[in-house]
Design goal:
Belongs to the Tom40 family. The protein has 381 residues and is mainly β. The protein has a single domain (50-237, 246-371), classed as Beta Barrel (Porin), CATH 2.40.160.10. 11% of the residues lie in helices and 49% in strands. It has helices at residues 15-45, 59-64, 366-371; strands at 73-84, 87-95, 104-112, 116-123, 128-135, 140-148, 156-164, 168-175, 184-193, 198-208, 215-225, 252-258, 264-271, 276-287, 296-308, 312-319, 323-333, 336-345, 350-362. Strand 4 (116-123) and strand 5 form a beta hairpin.
């Protein structure tokens, strides 16, 4: 079909053969495609959303709680922005020794544009780390991570691919894959939207460390959110220009995970305002008696909050074991920040304390940084 003012393309020499093949398979493919189109239309009428990936199921919790943010001792991060578009940055990270972690140094570099992210680093002991993300389209992303150790048998390679459908996400991941014998640890996860608020899925792990050993286990997942914003989907389109359901940012999110061992993890996150987030994490630890130790039936609940001020971010949390922690990141200028981290475990009568600084310099002018979105222009008088 041609648009107004456009001529129909002239038939090629293969057109009669293509028409013959189409007519041959039409009685079989026609009913299948009609059934699929009706099923797809039925799902669209339900108002289903794009639920995100299983990997990011508890991403909001990790942004609030201190597991990925707290530190002990003293640290300093010095970074230099070489370019803003494409982004290229060099980082030097120093950490002084503490009671649980020795002193360390890490040199890193990051390169990123709209489709590609390349990140690498090397520490003082010679361990090399790398990460690469490639966005092929609005629905497909490939990720590669690797670590090279100077000791045999400790290096790691991980390859992952995420496919985001209109109402589901499918992820395939493999760690240290063996190309000839299929050994390694392989992951398959699927999360599908069942209603505008509920998504269900699973994650299966196939452990194949040796050709003679094969173990599988499956976790079951659920995600419940507030009602989606009907205008969120209008902001995303596919490469062909068609509307594409995009992940939205709900006011609250609840997740649950049933692990193969019978343990349960449940989380709840709520955005109270534009600057205040609260998060709750509940985990059980049920372990039968074995050669590894006695039986355990425990549970821990962790509650935390994050406050974003104009030039500072504060995180605080407390758990059912009596552990209280906090992290304050105070940014005095866009290029200098000071951090304080602390934790007190009342049940064990122990404490941890850390201080750190972050310094960032750039070879770019102020006008270039504003154009790249790295600085907010200050209005004139």
């Amino acid at each position: 079909m041609a648009y107004p003012g456009e001529k129909n393309p002239a038939p090629s020499a293969f057109t009669p053969y293509l028409d013959a093949v189409n007519g041959l398979f039409q009685p079989m493919t026609g009913p299948v495609m009609n059934t699929y189109n009706r099923f797809h239309g039925w799902k669209e009428s339900m108002g289903l959303i794009q639920p995100g990936t299983v990997e990011n199921l508890t991403r909001e919790i990790s942004q609030v709680h201190l597991a990925n943010w707290a530190f002990e001792g003293a640290r300093a991060d010095v970074s230099k922005v070489v370019s803003g578009s494409p982004a290229f940055q060099l980082t030097h990270s120093f950490a002084l020794g503490s009671s649980s972690k020795p002193s360390s140094y890490n040199f890193g570099a990051v390169f990123a544009n709209a489709q590609t992210l390349l990140q690498g680093g090397v520490d003082g002991s010679g361990v090399v780390t790398m990460r690469a993300n490639q966005t092929w389209s609005a629905t497909d992303v490939t990720k590669v991570q690797g670590q090279l150790y100077n000791k045999p048998g400790q290096s790691m390679l991980q390859i992952e691919h995420d496919h985001l459908g209109p109402h589901y996400s499918l992820s395939l991941k493999t760690m240290n894959p063996g190309l000839l014998d299929g050994t390694g640890i392989h992951f398959v996860s699927l999360l599908h939207s069942i209603s505008p608020r509920l998504s269900l899925g699973f994650e299966s792990i196939i452990q194949h460390p040796q050709p003679a050993i094969l173990e599988t286990s499956t976790s079951y997942l659920a995600k419940l959110t507030s009602l989606p914003n009907p205008y969120a989907a209008l902001a995303a389109t596919s490469p062909t220009g068609q509307p594409l359901s995009a992940p939205f940012y709900p006011s609250w999110t609840a997740t649950a995970q049933l692990q193969p061992s019978g343990n349960i993890q449940a989380t709840y996150h709520q955005r109270l305002s534009e600057k205040v987030d609260v998060a709750l994490d509940f985990q059980t630890l049920i372990q039968p008696a074995s050669m590894m130790g006695p039986a355990k039936r425990e549970a821990i609940c962790t509650a935390g909050a994050k406050y974003d001020f104009r030039m500072a971010t504060f995180r605080g949390q407390i758990d059912s074991n009596g552990t209280v922690g906090m992290l304050l990141e105070q940014r005095f200028t866009p290029a200098f920040a000071f951090m304080v981290s602390g934790e007190i475990d009342h049940s064990k009568n122990t404490s941890k304390f850390g201080v750190g600084i972050m310094i960032e310099s750039s070879t770019m002018t102020q006008e270039e940084m504003i154009a790249a979105g790295m600085l907010t222009p200050v209005p004139g008088p």
